[in-house]
Amino acid sequence: MRMPSITKTSALLVLFCCLLLVAAGVLQYAWQLIPCPLCVLQRLVILLLGIYLIPGCLFVPMPTPRRWYYSVALLLASSGLGLSAWQVHLQLAPVAAAGSCGASLSYMLSNFPFMTVVHSLLQGSGECSDVQWTFLHVSLAEWSMLSFVILTGGCLWQMLRKSQ
To answer: Is the residue at 151 inside a domain?
Structure first.
């Protein structure tokens, strides 16, 4: 069986990012699931990764620039994997370890220095530890982590594969 080309694989990764963002929008607006701050950060990573991968759908760089290009994509996907793994950890941790619900993201951005907001977001809050929705007994954070595993694997494969 012939493997898809580098540009087709990039297009599949971009399509996967788009589908993830559409699913997140449906969960938020149709099913009224309000995203926690870590969920918002994960959506931002998916958006940035999808936008970053668009040029990879249009051209095939030489092997060395391609490795640099996909190493940045791998860094983005890995950061999303880390965020989703942290959220899964918060959901599995005892309630006292997760902390209490804090201020909303928009309030923090308008009233606190940026680095304080980033530190607060990465600590997680009580709302990040709540399991609002499950499918097949798997929480939304775990589905997000699985999606980032797929994206990370796809970026790694694109970075290491030989040109066709």
So the answer is: yes
Nearest to 48 by CA among 161, 156, 148: 148
Instruction: Write the DSSP symbol of residue 26.
Output: I
Domain CATH number, residue 135: 1.20.1550.10
Cα(150)–Cα(77) distance, integer angstroms: 9
Which two tokens mark 18?
């788009």
Domain with 122 in it: 6-160
Residues whose CB falls within 8 Å of the CB of residue 159, separated by 6 or more in sequence, listed in order: 66, 67, 70, 71, 73, 74
Closest by Cα among 72, 123, 75, 73 to 102: 123
Per-residue pLDDT tens, the chain, 164 aa: give them: 677 788 888 999 999 999 999 999 998 889 888 888 888 889 999 999 999 999 888 877 677 788 888 999 999 999 999 999 988 888 887 665 545 455 666 677 787 787 777 666 665 555 666 667 767 887 888 999 999 999 999 999 988 887 65
CB 36 within 8 A of CB 130: yes
